């Protein structure tokens, strides 16, 4: 299938092109330009979409998501498809499937399911293990009984089960054996994130020096910035290879704090959802990693202690909030949902941009940055 989207305000890669167009052939962008030059490539078999000056942006990339539509990614293939369908309608055309902490035996089984899903469905970028190698003091909504220290045997089992599809893992670097695990995982091509951690500034720097390159949901489940103890957030801002995840749902991080992240790490903030199964389902009861959750006014919290339990956020809302609440330029906000997350997992060559050779994933947004249409692998979604 060939498709041209024209007369667009194309955003991405730190720039805006007015009166822009892109051509999709199959699942790739093959041409891009501006003005009426697209007509030279169009024939009777080419479908066209007039963007009428609306925003045309790359498909959103979500690095950290647990589910939606009443389904969690740890529940099997049907649940994975259900949750991805919800997020794709909100512009997230590619996603890492995040798993909460569980015994290694259970994670091995779940990684194998995601391995198969990644090979069958291009929307699945692979798996993200948010645990079990987390600091109990900063466990958030993770089951304390499932937490463990990162011994070599467990790391090897997880890598073997994923068979090349484990793309990211969150680790508390102060745990015994953590730095060895970071080096082993990075050498295996896995992006290592620091998170759910009590790490000091120096401990976080040691992890980043060992190859860790993401800070999981910055400001949440970690020490804050203190003027004599700057902690992992300041360490991540200092290191130019580190991407900071931000859950910008109006609950996890105050807008002015999120704005500080954009200012302190320009081009290195990745908006993520950390969405759980209740996303798109309204208020009520839910489950996250076997723990009971109550969603009220769109905020998910553990029934047992009131701790925030992921979110009900979608990436389009995160982009809008970043622009409206944080007063961040729209292109920066869009880049934080496209360019930055793609780069964080080594996919900047083919994802997060609307340039020849990249994936034919795109989103049309109105002036209020609300999704009007989604294109996935070169096809418009109804």
What percentage of the residues does DSSP assign to strands (E)? 25-35%
Major sheet characteristics? 8 strands, mixed
Q: Say what the CATH topology of the largest domain is.
A: TIM Barrel
Distance between the termini: 16 Å
CATH class of the largest domain: Alpha Beta
Structural class: alpha/beta
The helix content, as a percent range, equals: 25-40%
CATH architecture term of the largest domain: Alpha-Beta Barrel
Shape assignment: globular
Query: Kindly state the mean pLDDT as a whole number?
Result: 95
How many domains? The number is: 2
- Sequence stretches where pLDDT stays below 50 over 5 or more residues: none
Structure characterization notes:
The mean pLDDT is 95. The protein has helices spanning 77-89, 104-120, 152-162, 178-187, 201-209, 231-238, 255-264, 315-326, 330-336, 339-344, and strands at 2-12, 15-25, 28-34, 46-50, 55-58, 60-62, 67-68, 71-72, 92-100, 124-130, 166-171, 191-194, 214-215, 243-246, 269-271, 284-288, 291-296, 299-302, 362-365, 371-376, 379-380. The chain has 382 residues and is an alpha/beta fold. Helix 5 (201-209) links the parallel strand 12 and strand 13. It contains ten helices and 21 strands. Helix 2 runs parallel beside helix 3 (152-162) and helix 8 packs antiparallel against helix 9. It has two domains: 2-57 and 354-380, Urease, subunit C, domain 1 (Roll), CATH 2.30.40.10; 60-344, Alpha-Beta Barrel (TIM Barrel), CATH 3.20.20. Helices cover 27% and strands 28% of the residues. Strands 1, 2, 3, 4, 5, 19, 20 and 21 form an eight-stranded mixed β-sheet that branches. Strands 6-9-10-11-12-13-14-15 form an eight-stranded parallel β-sheet. InterPro entries: Amidohydro-rel, GlcNAc_6-P_deAcase, Metal-dep_hydrolase_composite, Metal_Hydrolase.
């Amino acid at each position: 299938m060939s498709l041209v989207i024209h007369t667009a305000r194309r955003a991405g890669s730190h720039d805006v092109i007015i009166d822009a167009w892109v051509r999709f052939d199959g699942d790739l962008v093959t041409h891009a330009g501006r003005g009426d030059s697209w007509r030279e490539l169009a024939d009777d078999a080419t479908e066209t979409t007039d963007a009428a000056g609306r925003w045309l942006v790359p498909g959103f990339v979500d690095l950290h998501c647990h589910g939606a539509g009443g389904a969690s990614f740890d529940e099997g293939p049907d649940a994975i498809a259900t949750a991805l369908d919800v997020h794709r309608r909100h512009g997230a055309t590619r996603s890492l499937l995040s798993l909460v902490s569980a015994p290694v035996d259970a994670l091995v089984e779940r990684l194998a399911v995601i391995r198969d899903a990644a090979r069958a469905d291009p929307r699945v970028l692979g798996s993200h293990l948010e645990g079990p190698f987390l600091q109990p003091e900063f466990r958030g909504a993770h089951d304390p009984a499932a937490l463990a220290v990162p011994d070599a045997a467990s790391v090897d089992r997880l890598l073997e089960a994923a068979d090349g599809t484990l793309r990211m893992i969150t680790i508390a670097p102060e745990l015994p054996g953590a730095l060895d695990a970071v080096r082993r995982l990075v050498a295996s091509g896995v992006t290592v994130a620091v998170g759910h951690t009590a790490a000091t500034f120096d401990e976080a720097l040691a992890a980043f020096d060992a190859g860790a390159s993401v800070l999981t949901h910055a400001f949440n489940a970690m020490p804050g910035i203190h003027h004599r103890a700057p902690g992992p957030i300041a360490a991540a801002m200092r290191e130019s290879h580190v991407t900071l995840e931000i859950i910008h749902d109006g609950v996890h991080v105050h807008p002015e704090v999120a704005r500080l992240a954009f200012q302190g790490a320009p081009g290195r903030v990745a908006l993520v959802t950390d969405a759980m199964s209740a996303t798109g389902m309204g208020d009520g009861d839910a489950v996250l990693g076997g723990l009971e959750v109550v969603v009220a006014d769109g905020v998910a919290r553990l029934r047992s202690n009131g701790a925030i339990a992921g979110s009900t956020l979608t990436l389009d809302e995160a982009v809008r909030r970043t622009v409206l609440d944080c007063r961040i330029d729209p292109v920066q906000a869009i880049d934080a949902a496209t360019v930055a997350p793609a780069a964080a997992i080594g996919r900047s060559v083919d994802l997060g941009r609307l340039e020849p050779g990249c994936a034919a994933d795109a989103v049309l947004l109105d002036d209020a940055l609300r999704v009007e249409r989604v294109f996935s692998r070169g096809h418009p979604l109804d």
